[in-house]
Design brief:
By secondary structure, the chain is an alpha+beta fold. Helix content is about 25%, strand content about 35%. Strands 1, 2, 3, 4, 5, 6, 7 and 8 form an eight-stranded antiparallel sheet that branches. The radius of gyration is 15 Å and the shape is globular. It starts with a helix and ends with a helix.
Length: about 140
Amino acid sequence: MNNTKIIDEAVALLYDGYSVTLPVAGRSMLPFIIGDRESVILTKPENLRRGIIALAWVEQRRYVLHRIERIEGDKVTLMGDGNLVGREYCHITDVKAIATHSVDALQKRHYLYTKWRCAASEAWWLLMPIRRYILAIYKRMNNI
């Protein structure tokens, strides 16, 4: 079974009222979510706004778990925290879930929208011009 089918099934479970936890792959959400080490807890997409981490079907071809950068009408722009360039685009109906918590290797849950995490993600956005250097240091320090 490929990832798209697995995620489709997970989204169906969400809409049936179940809680869904999915492992995260890749490094596009560094430093806030560590791929291949953490999972996320997903819920139905409600109260979408800038800063929310969304699972979305983008460009009619794949799923991404990225932060909402902008919503204009029914169009959503997303970008991974660990991305240096590149954005994804979808319609608001293509946002299938939102992440509420990350789950670390010790199964400890971390709420993704505490005041500290929201402030840190806003600061991270402002650091866009130097993210490359900060991410390189972060990856070396954490063996990622």
